[in-house]
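comment on this one:
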Amino acid sequence: MQNDSTKINLDRSKIFCTHCGVENGNNDYGCGRCGEKLIKQTDVEKTSLNKIICNECENFDYVNSFYCWSCGVEFTPENKKPFNEPLLTNLDNNDNEKEQKSSNLEQPNSSDYKNNNSGDKKSDVPKEIKGWNWAAFLIPPLWGLFSGVPIAIIMLGLYLPIFSDEMRVVALIVCSIFLGFRGNELAWKGKKWKSVEHFKNVQKKWLSWAVTLNIIYLIFILYSGNLSS
């Protein structure tokens, strides 16, 4: 078995998203499915945080990875092993403890990971995330593309010329209201999230983007109207 991170395979043209497990190009920055930053071999080499060893390919990963960046296998307690590099000095030991405390604040604890059923179509949605989703209501296609809700993208088909203006407006309003009500549930079941808090934080960011984009759109409409008059 490999025993240091410098032995990770450098020849791969493809890597896997450690968040959702989808295969991506080695030169890509973010995952094409979920948008998360791709963890690469150099990132794992440089990190001073705890690592794990994938039993399938024997490469190293971040301790909080859901999938192996190298082979794409989904991590379970049975197919990963902890790996701690030896510390050479007391100073290194103190630095490692500080960084580990910081890492623990960002990572879900073991019980959260065990109870995290996101990405499962048949799972129950945590009551903490139930409620109205403004981003799903205001920008459904864009929100759905990155939130694991492909049904929202289908709404773009309503702009095809086969639909009348009246039918298009009614369908867009109905679909937007539906996604506003059911958006959180569909997104939780549509992709893997690190925790409930992670899900809520991402949706807050989407809300700010949705409001900003709609304000820009309204300004554009008003400006275009003034020009035409």
